[in-house]
Amino acid sequence: MSHPFVDEETGAIDRERVLSEAIPLGKLVLLVAATAFLPFSIVLLFGSFSVLGTVFTLLAQFVLAVGTGIVLLYVVARGIQIAEQ
To answer: Where in the sequence is the domain holding 57, given as residue range(s)?
Structure first.
């Protein structure tokens, strides 16, 4: 059985493979954070104690919760794919 991120010849960490997996994951996290930042920035404009501010705060938290779930599903699915290789 081979280890996914270890170079079989040297036994060292395969940095290129780690980066090739980390970059898409980082882009996905950045997309979720940028999507959640939009409602939070609207809250900053309208004030957090108004009704509209409360709605946008809840929307941003919902986006973060769903985005976290999507990222976790991606990590699990990708881990299964890597384990099968």
So the answer is: 15-84
